[in-house]
Design a protein that fits this description.
This protein has 214 residues and is an alpha+beta fold. The protein is 53% helix and 8% strand. It folds into two domains: 4-79 and 194-213, Glutaredoxin; 87-191, Glutathione S-transferase Yfyf (Class Pi), Chain A, domain 2, CATH 1.20.1050. The protein has nine helices and five strands.
Length: 214
């Protein structure tokens, strides 16, 4: 019996969880859902009703994408994305993901759904998000990836959110002064691993045969 992963293809949290699982080589039963019609099985396992949710064979439920990534890489991390041998680097990875998940995600939501936040115009929220983009651009001027000359967990955890930010106004992003960031984003979006995790999955329903991922 394989672990069960509830997912929604376009959700950046679910996207990064699928990326980590695929990289680790662990197989799961993927249950693609529609957020407006959440199955009872998902809500029974995780009443919060957000994705991704991973249910392990022992019944343990992992409800946060970051914890799912950590779990997958602890099973198998062939390229050392966790950088566990370097405690200082591991701390830097955690802090950068913290900033993405806690500050940048807020600005991203405000920018993407500016009509829900009438206190400021859309451009204001974009400018707040740009503070993080500038930080990443500076980092990428020094390394091929966010913290190293090779991929680490921070790259995989953050790029789905930068992709979403870029997609709010593609013309603006194309003209924005972030050449290194655009190159970095393009690298991931054009990768075969990304194309694989972003294939269109059939929506899961009770009784359908399990879809084994990857």
């Amino acid at each position: 019996m394989l672990p069960i992963l509830y997912s929604f293809r376009r959700c950046p949290y679910a996207m990064r969880a699928r990326m980590a699982i695929q990289y680790s080589g662990i197989q799961v039963q993927l249950r693609e859902i529609v957020l407006r019609n959440k199955p009872a099985e998902l809500l029974l396992a995780s009443p919060k009703g957000t994705v991704p949710v991973l249910i392990l064979n022992n019944g343990q439920v992992i409800e946060q994408s970051r914890e799912i990534m950590q779990w997958a890489l602890e099973q198998n991390d062939p390229q050392q994305w966790l950088c566990q041998q370097d405690s200082e680097l591991s701390t830097q990875i955690a802090l950068l993901i913290d900033h993405n998940d806690q500050q940048f995600k807020t600005h991203l939501d405000q920018y993407k759904y500016a009509d829900r936040y009438p206190a400021h115009p859309k451009e204001y929220y974009r400018a707040q998000g740009e503070l993080f983009l500038r930080d990443l651009e500076t980092r990428l001027a020094q390394n091929s990836f966010l913290l190293l000359h090779q991929i680490c967990l921070a790259d995989i955890a953050i790029f789905p959110f930068i992709r979403q930010f870029a997609g709010v106004d593609p013309e603006w992003f194309d003209a924005a002064p972030y050449p290194k960031l655009k190159q970095w984003l393009s690298f991931f979006c054009n990768s075969s691993d990304y194309q694989s995790v972003m294939q269109k999955f059939v929506v899961w329903q009770v009784g359908t045969p399990p879809f084994i991922f990857p």
